[in-house]
Amino acid sequence: MDRKQCCVKLSVQPSRGLMDEKFIVLVQNALPGSQLTIRALHQCEDGHSWEAFGHYTADTTGTINVSEDPSIRGTYSGVEQMGLLWSLRPIPGSKPGLRMRKKNIQTPMEVTISVYQGHQTEGFADLVPLSGVVVERWYMAPGVRRIPVTEGGLTATLFLPSGPGPFPGLLDLWGGGGQLVEYRAALLASHGFASMAIDYLTSKFTMETGKMVDNQYFETAYRVLQQHPQVCGSKIAMIGLSFGTSMTLKMAIYSEVIKLSAAVCISGSHVQPVEGSVEEIMGFFQKNAGKTRFNEKNEAIWRDLLLPIPTDPSLKADVGRLQCPLLLVVGEDDQNWPAQESALDIKEMMARAGNSHLLTVLSYPNAGHLIEPPYTPHARSSTFKTVEIQEKVMCLWGGQTVEHSRAQEDAWKKILVFLRENLYGGRNPTSFSHL
Amino acid sequence: MAVPPILSVTPSRALVDEKFQVLVENLPPGCPVTLRSLHRSEDEDDWEAYGHYVSDHRGVVSVSEDLSFGGMYTGKEPMGLLWSMRPVPGSRKGLRLRKINVCTPMLVNISVHSGHEGFRDRTPLASALAERWYMAPGVKRIDINKQGVQGTLFIPPGPGPFPALLDMWGGGAGLLEYRSALLASRGYVSFSLDYLRSEHLSADVEFKYFETAFNIIRNHPQVIPDRVGILGSSLGSMVAFNLTAYSTIIKVSPRCIVCISSNHYHPPGTTLKAGFKILSKYVLFVGRINCPMLLVNGCDDQNWPTVETAEEVARLLREGGKEHLLSRLAYPGAGHLIEPPFSPHFRATKFIILNSKEKVILLWGGHTKPHSDAQEDSWRKILSFLQLHLYHSPSVKANL
C-alpha cells in the first residue's frame, strides 16, 4: 500500500439541508496524524466559483470532525462547524465586487466538499482529492408552495408552508437595489410563516409607467395576504432590510390599513420625511448624496447621508406611536446606513413616549450592513446599483467576516424566535435548537 | 382564526436509513393528539402509520422522546411512523412497498390530529412533508448492458476509486435498485445485477454470467480491484455463497460476502430453470470459502429454512477450521425480507412464481416490531462489516 491514503471516507450529515441548518463534516479512515485540507467549492448561478478551506490534522483514530476539531489555518480557523460555508469567497482571479445571492430558490445550492492530502492553499483545480461529496442546501423545505402574486398590480411571491394552515403572515421587503428577492421569504415559509416577498421599487407597474408605487401598494399586499384562506389575518408581521426598514416603519406606524403583530427592521433607519411617498423618501436620501465618502479602495460609504440624526420630528418616523413589538438588528460596522445611530435615537424616542417595552435591539460589533440568513458568504463590499443611480458603484457594506457571520447566525435564530413568539404565541420554542 | 400547532420534521430531507425527529409545538398542555404518516406509493396505494401521544406542560410532543400509547406502535419509537406503516383500510391485499424509481425521493406526509379515537375523521391540525432518499446528492446511476450482463450501477460522488459490491436480490421482483443506490450513498460502487430473466437461465451461462458481472465491476476505472465484495439476499445470497465457494474455479474472489436470508437447500417454488449443480457437497464448499462472511437471517423466516442453513454453515466452517471467517446475525421474531431500515414489514405478500407465473400469497414471516428492529440493527452491522473489510486495510485473505 503506497503512502497516498487509500479509502479516506468523507461524509456530510445531512447531505440535504436547509440553508440555515448546521451540518457535520466528518473525515474517517485517514492515516492518524496526517495533515489534510477540507475544501468547499460552489459554482453560483452567475457562473462564478467560490471556495473555502481549512487545514486539519487527523487524530489517533484517523478521524476529523469539523464540529469539534480546529482548523489551523485557511479561509477560517478554529473550531468552526459551518466555516466551509460562511467563509466561501470567490476563487483567485475572479472579478472584484461579487456577492452571492440565489435567484432560483426552487433548486438547491450545490456545494462540493472534498478532502485533500496535505495542507494546500491554492491550485486545488489541479489536485485530485482523496474523497469528495456533494451537499445540497435548500431555501425551500419540502411541501412549501411558491405562488406568484400579481393581484392588485403587485409584483410579489407568496410562499406557503406545507400543511392546512392557517399560518401567520409575513411581508418581506429588501432594499434600494429593488428586484423581487425571494430567498428569505422562502426560508421563513420553511419555518411556518406564510411569507410574501414584495418588489416595491422595480415592480411591473414601475417598469411600465416609470412611476414609483405609493402607500397603497403595501396596503394591497397586506390585504391580499390577510384575505388568503390559509393565512391567519390577525397575525401578520413585516420584515425589512435597509430601505425596506424605512417602508416597514412607515407602514407599522402610519398606515390605517396595516395592523402588524410585529416588525423586524434590519440595518435601517427611522429617518425619513414623515409625510413622504416612497418616491419622496428616496429623493430625500438622494438630496444628501453629496455626503458620500470614498475609502482608500474607492468604495462608496453612504452612512453619512442620513447623519446627523435630525431633531426635527417631521424627518423621523414617530416610533413613539408604535403599537407592536419591534426587533431592530444592527451591524456596528455598517458603512451603508447609520443603523447604530438610528437605533440609539429610536430607543430614546420610545423611552420618552413610554413604549420602549416593545423594543428589542440586537447590536453586533464588527458586523456590516448585509445581515442575511446564516452560512452564506459575507460581502464587505460589492458592486451595487440602486434604482436611483443608473451606474454600478462599488459599495462598502462593512463588517469583518468572522464577526459578521456570527452575527448572521445569532440574529437569524433570534428573529425566528421573535416571530414565533409574536405570531404563534408560543411559550418555549424548542425546534430551532438544531440551527 | 386560532393559530395552529407547529409540526416540524428534522431533517426534512434525509437518506432512507437516517433517523428524523418529529416535533409538535404550540399545543395546549396535556393535549391528546395522534401523529400520523401517510405515503402514496408508486403503485398508487396509500400507506399509513400512527401513534397516540399526549403533549407536556409546554404543549410539546416529541416523537423521539415521548411514548406512544396506541396506534400502530407503542412506546418510545422515533421511527415508528415509518417502519410500522401498513396499507390504509380498504386497500388491496398482500401489498409490498418497494421503490422502483430511486432518482426521486419517497414523500411522506406527517400530520398531527387532535384526539386519539376517530382521529381520521378530523382534518389535521398541522402537517409537514418529509423526503426520504435512496440516492445521496452526486451519486451517479448508470444502466449496464455489457458483455451480455445487465443491471444498474451506482457510483458514489468523488474521485474514487472506491470499494465495490455485487448486489443480488431474490426472485419475484424484477430488478431492484434501491439497496445499491443506498450502498453507493454510503461510499461503495454498487452493481444491482439483473440475473433472473429467462434468457439467463441455461446451465452453461450460469457461472459465466456472474463471473463476467464480477469482472465488469472489478475492472471498472472507479473500483479498487481487490476490494470487491458480494451482497445477496434470499436467492441472491445463495448465488453469492456459491460464487464464493467456487471462486478458485471461476476466478471470482470477493473480499467479503454478506448473505441475507440465505438458503443452501434447493428452494421449492423458486427453482432456476436449470439450477445450479449444487448443494449436496457442502464440505467441498466450505473448504473453498476464503473470505469473511456475514450471515444475516430472521429466526421467524417462513419462506426459507434460513436458520437451519446458517447453523449448518457455521458447523461446517467450525469443522473446517474456518470459523474465524464467519459472523452471524440471527434475529428472533424477524422474517425473510430483511431490508434497509425503517421500511415497512411484510409478513405475507403477493408473489408471482418465476417458472409457473402462478400468483400466490407468500408467507415471509416475522412480527413487525422485532422485524423492524432487525432491519435497523442488521443494516448498521452490515455497513460496519463492509467498512471494516472493504475500506480498512488488512486483508484476511493474505494470511491463508
Description of the molecule:
The complex is a heterodimer of chains A (435) and B (400). By secondary structure, chain A is an alpha/beta fold. Chain A folds into 2 domains: 10-138, Acyl-CoA thioester hydrolase/BAAT N-terminal domain (Immunoglobulin-like); 145-424, Rossmann fold. Helix content of chain A is 21%, strand content 26%. Chain A has 8 helices and 21 strands. Chain A has helices at 83-86, 183-189, 204-209, 215-227, 243-254, 278-287, 339-353, 401-424; strands at residues 9-13, 16-18, 24-28, 35-43, 49-57, 64-65, 89-90, 109-117, 131-138, 145-149, 156-160, 167-173, 194-198, 231-241, 262-266, 293-294, 300-301, 326-331, 359-364, 381-384, 393-396. The longest helix of chain A is centred in the last third of the chain and has 24 residues, at 401-424. Chain B is of the alpha/beta class. Chain B contains 8 helices and 19 strands. In chain B, strand 4 and strand 5 form a beta hairpin. The model of chain B is unreliable at 201-205, 266-283 and 395-400 (pLDDT under 50). At the A-B interface, strand 1, strand 2, strand 8, strand 9 and strand 14 of A face strand 1, strand 2, strand 8, strand 9 and helix 8 of B.
Task: Assign the CATH topology of the largest domain in chain B.
Answer: Rossmann fold
Shape assignment of chain A = globular
Tell me which oligomeric state these chains represent: heterodimer
Rg of chain B, nearest Å: 22 Å
> What is the CATH topology of the largest domain in chain A?
Rossmann fold
**Going by CATH, what is the homologous superfamily of the largest domain in chain B?**
Alpha/Beta hydrolase fold, catalytic domain
- Uncertain runs of chain B are 201-205, 266-283, 395-400
Structural class, from helix and strand content of chain A? alpha/beta
Query: Averaged pLDDT of chain A, please?
Result: 95
CATH architecture of the largest domain in chain A: 3-Layer(aba) Sandwich
Largest sheet of chain A: 8 strands, mixed
Q: In DSSP terms, counting alpha (H) and pi (I) runs of 4 or more, how many helices of chain A? A: 8
Class based on secondary structure composition and strand pairing of chain B: alpha/beta
> What is the N-to-C succession of helices and strands of chain A?
EEEEEEHEEEEEEHEHHEHEHEEEHEEEH
CATH architecture of the largest domain in chain B: 3-Layer(aba) Sandwich
Give the ordered list of helices and strands of chain B: EEEEEEHEEEEEEHEHEHHEHEHEEEH
User: Any idea of the CATH class of the largest domain in chain B?
Assistant: Alpha Beta
